[in-house]
Amino acid sequence: MRTFLLLWLLGSFIACVILACMDRRPAPVCPVPVELNRTSRQATGFKGVDMIVVVDDSGSMAEEQAILSTQFFTLINSLVFPTADWKFPAAQSVRIGVVSSDMGQRYGDDLNCEYASNSHLNEKCRKCGKNGRFRTYDNGATINIREGEIKCNLYDDQPQCPTDWECRSEGDCEGEEDHPNVGCCYDPEGDGTAQSCPKLNAIYAQTPIGSGDDETTNWDLAFQTACLAKLGIEGCGFEQQLQAAAQGLIHPKNNPDPDQTFYRDEYLLAVIIVSDEEDCSIKDKQLYKSPEMELISDEPHKMNIACGSNEEFLFSASHFKEWFTSRKKDPNSVVFAAIVGVPTEPDGDAECQGKGSDLKNCLDHKDMEAVPMIEDPSSNDASWVFREACRREGPSGELITQARPGARYVELAQEFGRFSHVSSICNEDWSPAMSEIASLIANQLQGTCYPKPLDWDHETQQAKCDVVAAYEGQDECGFELDDGVSPYIAIEERGNEKIEVLYCPLPRLAAPLDCVEAEKAIAELGPDKVGWYYCEDNSENFKQACDPDGAWSGVDEDEDGKVDCEDEDCWRCEPCEGLPGVDPSSAPDCPRSCKFKVELTDPAKRITKNQRISVQCLQQVTFADTNCQENTAAVCNDGEDNDGSGVADCNDSEEYLADRNCCPMIVDEDTKACQISSSVFDICGEKGDVSDACVAAAKAFKCNLPSEEE
């Protein structure tokens, strides 16, 4: 029987190759080695990140801008010049544009400036304000930077520190046992005040500078960003933070090259807001005619009471989610972060700080309610403002920060789910917030989602593929190839030109199939190892895991006892929407990461920087392919061995020869009971019917099926 099966499979293979069998409809008997998969997606994830940062420049932000100048070093250094205790590799390319929250009396989202000319706002708020233009600074500008707050590596060139500062291990920055190489930056000639800002070479800060052979690292990126954040406090107090970010992305003055926008399709886009006031992005100028506007004095920081009472005249959070994501070809390439007015709660759970997916109860918090300080709405008192969400006082009780509830930022973070982060502007230490934002960005810059499982050799622990770097106009690869592997040359046409391209396969590295275990194994190879590996994510954080009819149906990926659309993690994924028992309103965002990952080591990423990367696989149609499965009612009752396993369907005349894939299950480690999804019984017959497939699965997994009485 086995010999016949092998001959039959070989015959199928030969026939399929002769017929150039690339179309797998109708479903073939598997496995059939018929296709070469190629993808030119970057094997290192996004090429880099474009950041647009909105800084509130109203009259109450002096202390916060001073904090921001120092803490921008934490954010930028983590991404570009990481310290020894940072877990992510450096980003290849970063752009940072800074805009003011001052949009004057502008309303609507048209590129042309429309503004209300008959409102009660003072001169600071006339016309369109800064209108989303990137802010810059003049030569000779200075900022104050706090000593002992910027982390640095003790024994290298200290690119993390401001120019001419020293990296020391002392005080709170004394190197920890796990990371003795990490200290903090100190000014050797003073106390950090009046630091001269480095020259800015463009309308935004960026690294690298130049292109091609003239490309150089911008060692002053963090310093430049810190200087850009010092906007002063003369801006309009009627803040439109989210609209300022939106306008900043499309403002023609921010995009001097007509063929290229500030944001780039192959790069992650990060939108970051820093403000102590609620967003008041105005959609309709009728807001200026509202009763609340009649009560406002000409003090600009007393104006946002009109916004909280007239939300119908404002753009919604969902509008901005759609607006930002629609700028990119891939709507999943945007993250959002905000340091704003939310409760700090140092002695309890931080309901309003963290990822957007963790902020479900934030808007119910008592300090997030828009409650006026003056109860009588007819009063013309200038202090008729909303009650604070948080405040911070100095050692002598002096007020440092007082922030109004930033509910709209929380709503937008909830829209972005786990691809967002909110923290309180009233926190004394902003380092954790900046580290969280950096982690949010860095997490998205890593790895490649491959659309299907790669053929994987259990003996060698390697995928049967090549990851190839393409070098134009070079005679040699930038790394040592595996034994027996040679580079190859191809001539490619670019318009009227013919270009010689050298293709260099990166070394394959052996690693366990599970991504967590693979990471550990690759780390043991040392920090200088050049190569790539394939792994599969075994958590329930990829869309395919939520598909009730797809390739991974019936598998409890995260082992929480819930399968597919029974799992709340899947309720906002397209396959589950509208099904009975599914409540998307109480579920996290549908995950967008995927199960199948091609990863490069950090040295490989550096060596292949700016080169085209392709993943090339002459692979079989695997058992996980949708055409080659035994896991639905149709294929488990068709009399065919669809997945080539040698057994077929739900029942068989011979003992235990039914296909156990027709009855996916997990094992309760405590009771050793087989746990089967209730929906699985429908595959093999009526609910409650324990099929031969389930008996076979139970035997394979060494677990106990429930008795018929149960």
Topology summary:
Blueprint: H1 2-18, E1 33-39, E2 49-55, H2 62-80, E3 94-100, E4 142-143, E5 151-153, E6 166-168, E7 182-186, E8 195-196, E9 205-207, H3 221-228, H4 241-250, E10 268-274, H5 291-294, H6 305-308, H7 317-326, E11 334-340, E12 354-355, E13 390-393, E14 399-403, H8 407-416, E15 420-424, H9 431-444, E16 448-450, E17 456-457, E18 462-463, E19 466-472, E20 488-494, E21 497-505, H10 515-523, E22 532-536, E23 596-600, H11 602-607, E24 612-620, E25 665-667, E26 674-676, H12 692-701
Parallel strand pairs: 2-3, 2-10, 10-11, 11-15
Antiparallel strand pairs: 1-24, 3-9, 4-8, 5-7, 6-7, 12-15, 13-14, 16-23, 17-18, 19-21, 19-24, 20-21, 22-23, 25-26
Helix pairs in contact: 2-3, 2-9, 7-8
Instruction: Extract low-pLDDT stretches.
Output: 1-29, 31-37, 39-44, 620-624
> How would you sum up the global shape?
globular
Query: What does the main sheet amount to?
Result: 7 strands, mixed
Give the terminus-to-terminus CA distance. Answer: 39 Å
Strand content: 15-25%
Helical residue percent band:
10-25%
Number of strands: 26
Rg value: 29 Å
Number of helices: 12
Multimeric status of the protein: single chain
For the largest sheet, list the strands in their spatial order: 9-3-2-10-11-15-12
The average pLDDT value, as a whole number, equals 78
Query: What structural category do the secondary elements indicate?
Result: alpha+beta
> How many individual domains?
4
